[in-house]
Amino acid sequence: MTFTIPGFDLDQFVRSTLAEDLGEGLIGGGRDVTSESVIPADARFAGVMDSRDAIVVAGLPIAEAFFRALEPEIEIELLVQDGDAVEPGTDLMRLAGNARGLLTAERSALNTVQHLSGIATMAREYVTAMDNPDCTLLDTRKTIPGLRHLEKYATRMGGASNHRMGLWDAAMIKDNHVAVAGSVGEAVRRAWEAGVEHIICEVDRLDQIGPALQAGAHHLLLDNMSPETLREAVAMVDGRVPCEASGGINLDTIKAKAATGVQFVSVGRLTQSAPAADIGLDFKPV
User: Fold this and answer.
1) Dihedral angle at the C-alpha atoms of 117, 123, 128, 130, nearest 10 degrees?
2) Burial, 28: exposed, middle or buried (Cβ in 10 Å; 0-12, 13-18, 19+)?
3) CA-CA distance, 277 to 140, in Å (whole number)?
4) Helix orientation angle between 148-157 and 99-130, rounded to the nearest 10 degrees
5) CA separation for the pair 59, 120 (Å, rounded)
6) How many Å apart are CA 95 and CA 236, to the nearest integer?
7) Is 36 helix (H, G, I), strand (E, B) or coil?
8) Quick check: pTM over 0.90?
């Protein structure tokens, strides 16, 4: 089955990442000096990619694309699926093929799987800590430029859902928009009159809820509120629109905030600060 993510060009990502590593366009670039000088052109490599941590896996099909780009005749076997939770020492992928091609692609493939698996693992930790089937964990736009589609794919593998993908698919009125517009109500009114189909409005005070709803907000982001204030806010909204808790949320606080009646909890740290998973590729002769 072909691996696809809407809006993401896998072939272009692979080409540009490999070009960066090979130094294409730079003086003396465009080659893997180590593999060319150390590895015979016809040498074979067989190896296993494995996890040294307990992780949630994400990015294996992308790693496969890196290897296939430089070794089209590769023999490859994916031993687990993206979204699987695995224990330390679990083999993720077996591969065999031309040594130069596979070793040139190795770092790009591993970097991608390590980064995305780290995000998926953290997302699963937050879902587990939230322990609330009635509340959905959301990611944010706090992503590395150029990697948003991949990072948001990884949060889905960990059990989170995607917030808006970018600036185009919903209006999110935040404090600086309010400051320029003059008030929460005025900012929402302008978005409504512009025909925006989905208007998310951030409020950090209870007295902003009424004006936001009256002006036509479809979704309220309740920012940096304590659990007690969140409960009061949810009661004021009274089911008219979905409510999302945001700000000050970590593994220690997420359960209490999710239990206040909000439908969503958003965590920027999933994509902003997730540590890379410890994954390696080791030579194992067949």
Assistant:
1) 170
2) exposed
3) 21
4) 60
5) 10
6) 57
7) helix
8) yes
| The token pair that represents 241 in the structure block | 């629109």
Torsional sign, CA 265, 152, 142, 140: negative
Residue % of the chain over a pLDDT of 70: 99
Question: Of 55, 91, 54, whose CA–CA distance to 76 is shortest?
Answer: 91
Q: Which residues, listed in sequence order, are joined to residue 221 by a DSSP beta bridge?
A: 202, 244
Q: Which two three-digit tokens encode residue 51?
A: 């996890």
Question: How far is Cα of residue 192 from the mean position of the Cα atoms in its chain?
Answer: 30
CA dist 7 and 242 (Å) reads 27
Contact 62/113 with Cβ under 8 angstroms? yes
Please, which pLDDT band fits residue 284 given cuts at 50, 70 and 90? confident
> How far is CA 165 from its chain centroid?
11
Q: Are 49 and 74 in contact (CB under 8 A)?
A: no
Helix (H, G, I), strand (E, B) or coil at 58: coil
pLDDT in tens, 237-269: 999 999 999 999 999 999 999 999 999 999 999
Helix extents (H) in the chain: 10-22, 33-38, 60-70, 99-130, 148-157, 175-181, 184-193, 209-215, 227-237, 254-258, 269-272
